[in-house]
Amino acid sequence: MAPVTGMRVALGIRYRGQAYLGWQSQPNGRTVQDRLEHALARFADRPIRTMCAGRTDTGVHALNQVVHFDTELAREPFSWVRGTNRFLPDDIAVQWCQPVPEAFHARNSAIGRRYVYRLLESAVRPSLESGLCGWSFRPLDAERMREAARVLIGEHDFSAFRSSECQAASPVKQLREITVERRSDVWRFEFEASAFLHHMVRNIMGCLVAVGAGLRDADWLARVLAARDRAQAAPTFAAAGLYFVGPYYDACFGIPAPSASGDGWP
Fold this sequence. Notes:
2 domains; about 30% strand; disordered C terminus
């Protein structure tokens, strides 16, 4: 592959979010974006600003966060990967590098996004899994949660699941799929949508767990959705179990999909 020079570059980033105050840069520098841009600057010997596909909150993880930036440097794609990783902490790593046309935009070109939530069902709180999964000490019922989730599929006003800090222009989003699976004592919830509101997945998770634990009826979620009132929904669920699987794009851009392990059980 020819060296990357005078063009737009996309990177895929994987990170564990426990140590960071989310993705977006902050003055204290304790964010994933700050760490990444510091590493890029060390490798490139000049400042580099990145644009991401989707911001993640404090404690949220990512399997295939996609960013882009413009550069005049002539570097092989594998050099951007290895060179940048040299300056990154152990819990953040560039997975791939891909030259892209100027028309590509990590956020605006995405045609959909996926999140996964991992949840441990156990009488005892997580220990080895601490920070990497949510937790329910109550037994959960899969069919009740699947029945409740079905009412959310489609294009709706998701104001009831929107953080007060959300900056999205509209609360209307198209939620395309929710899957609920269990393996041993770990639940896996996968969400696919055109885009997500701030805290949308975690707020839905709070509701699904309430239904699954028998604290609410399955049809309660339909009433919450119709109310468009955040106060009617369950509390926001923990960030620890949330993974940004990543965005997806038109095939013409050639953006790699998450690895097999990322598509399975994060």
